[in-house]
Structures are given as C-alpha cells and as structure tokens.
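PROTEIN DESIGN WORKSHEET
SECTION A - STRUCTURE
LENGTH: 223
TOKENS:
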C-alpha cells in the first residue's frame, strides 16, 4: 500500500529484455537519490510512477536497484519501457503518516495530458481519462497521476471519457517528475479505491441464501 506522496525522483537508467517475444517482460535498472536505499531490502515494494514493483536486486553504493516487470504490466501502464525520470514511493508502513490517500499501486488505466501550464504561482494540469474511469472521478475527489496523490478541481465529461483539471503547487512540481509532462504525454492513473467499493455495494445483485454464513453477533453469540 502507498499514499501517493512521492519520496524520491529517480531515473530509469537501463532496460534489458527478459526474452525475445512479446510475452516476455523487461528488467529495469533504476537510479535513485543518495541514501534512498538505506532502509530497502530484497523483496520490498517500491512504486514506479504509481505502479507497485518488487526490488529484485540493489546496490546502495551506486544508488541503484532493479525490478522485473511483466509483459502484462507493461501493457497496462505507460512510461516504464523507456529511460527517463520517474516518481518513486516506498511502501507504506503501519506507523507512517497518511499524507495523501490510500493507493494500491495497481494502475487502473492510462490518460493523456491535454494541458499543462503555469497559472500564477501554481500549475494547472488537465488529463483526458478513458470512459471506463470517468464515473469514478468527482470534484474534490482523489486521483493518482504517475503515482502522485492529487485532488480533482474540475471534471468535464466528454464523449470519449472525461477531462480532469488539477492544481499543482510549486512544491509538487519541483519534487516530482510531473515537471517533465507536456501536452500529449501518457500518464498512469489510479482512481480512489473507495469509489470501487461504493460501486460494488450499489450495483451487486447477489442476495444471501439460507446456506450463506452469517456474520457474528457478539450479543447473541455470547448467550
């Protein structure tokens, strides 16, 4: 689990094929800030642009770690098959502050930057989202863009989905890889998981049967 609060900006430094077919994934070598790997171990989870990955090897002395990414993950994400800057977030600890919102690190889809420009001291980011994600986006709701927890300022529905407008403060632009975005850039999106639970509760038609296990009732069960 993650919070969408970026803990470092790294760089995909090298990409190696794990096989010769489209069914094979890739091995990525990630360069990260000095000291970033001091509390990292093999098997730890680190989100790369919002996609949860497992550390398969690391070299703290060179500030590098590697991950293996499957062909399926490459197909469902963007920005992980070429070198360049990347947002990093270590997995949430039980005693950490929840500064953003609950993020699973499972990318729901990709969007396209339609506008990115400075407005006053801040920046406005607009992202076109696919139609299957549009219903989960609400004014003042949360969305994760390339792993960054952000607040939706406006939602405009369009035939192909929706366009969300987001305000970025200077700190966010300066301390994440979002500063490299331009119109047309593809980004990874994760919607607020609470929206999925609400949808499931409202849409399910499954009814309990006589054989279904009943939830415990402490007041009745103790008698």
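SECTION B - SEQUENCE
RESIDUE ASSIGNMENT:
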């Amino acid at each position: 689990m993650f919070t969408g609060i970026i803990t470092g900006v790294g760089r995909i430094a090298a990409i190696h094929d794990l096989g010769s077919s489209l069914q094979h994934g890739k091995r990525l070598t990630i360069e990260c800030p000095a000291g970033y790997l001091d509390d990292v171990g093999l098997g730890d989870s680190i989100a790369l642009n919002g996609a949860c990955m497992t550390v398969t090897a690391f070299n703290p002395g060179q500030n590098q770690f590697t991950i293996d990414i499957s062909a399926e993950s490459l197909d469902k994400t963007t920005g992980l098959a070429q070198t360049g800057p990347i947002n990093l977030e270590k997995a949430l600890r039980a005693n950490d502050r929840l500064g953003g919102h609950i993020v699973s690190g499972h990318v729901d889809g990709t969007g396209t930057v339609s506008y990115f420009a400075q407005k006053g001291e801040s920046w406005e980011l607009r992202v076109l989202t696919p139609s299957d994600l549009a219903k989960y986006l609400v004014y003042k709701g949360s969305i994760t863009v390339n792993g960054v927890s952000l607040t939706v300022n406006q939602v405009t529905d369009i035939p192909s989905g929706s366009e969300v407008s987001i305000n970025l403060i200077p700190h966010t632009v300066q301390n994440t890889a979002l500063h490299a975005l331009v119109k047309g850039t593809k980004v990874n999106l994760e919607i607020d998981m609470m929206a999925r639970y609400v949808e499931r509760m409202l849409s399910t038609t499954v009814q309990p049967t006589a054989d279904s296990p009943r939830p415990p009732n402490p007041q009745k069960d103790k008698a």
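SECTION C - NOTES
The chain is about 15% helix and 40% strand.
Residues 193-203 form the longest helix (11 residues).
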